[in-house]
Write a structure and sequence with these properties.
single chain, 249 residues, mainly alpha, three-stranded antiparallel β-sheet, two-stranded antiparallel ribbon, 49% helix, elongated
Amino acid sequence: MSDGTLRESQRAMARHLRDPEQVPGPRGVEPRRLKIYQDLVYRNIEGFISSGFPVLRSLYNDPDWHALVRAFIQGHRCQSPFFLEISQEFLHFLMQEFQPRDCDPPFLTELAHYEWVELALDVATETLPEQTEPFGEVLSAVLSLSPLAWSLGYHYPVHRIGPGFRPAETVDTFYLVVYRDRGDAVRFMELNAATARLLELFRDNREASVGTLLGQLAGELGLEEQTVLEFGAGQVEKLVEQSILVPVA
């Protein structure tokens, strides 16, 4: 068999496995063997998606869920060959390619993104800086957002969604920080808009002190600086305790 013939045979098999009901299998392969490959491919992919998006899965009946997974397999062209990145590919499919059906919740993409963030943090290879002794006066410390903390904004309270709570209406932007702590547990914290903005100021910070950033926040919010410094110092200490903010090396 020439390289071209082999390549075309492989492509024919791939097209069939993506959509076995519409695309006939390659010639010369008995149906029993094709069924084995069909089940193997589908079950592996569906298993990774179900385990990566357990809350989302719990909101669907079996036929609607499997139709969603089938649409992903049939229509999406993955950019990564790694099974660990199937969840990210599925998220891209939902956000960029999928046309929602009547059975899909309005918060589909936001919930999927939130669940993907939890998974991404769980498997992230970044590490936290070594824990040091108390850094002294908090306002003079130089801190940065942890590489294992993501400050996020949604229009649905995604962290509370489940079979017993399916919000139908959007709300004002809902802020969360999702992070991995020093015990490697993935956690989340609800934020108000001011704290969410403060975390953005700490993102990639390498030189500015806590006091400087709190002063900048006070100016943006039109608040009295001393009040923000006094209240903000305590908030920053709590964020450091939870490893959401970390000292700059």
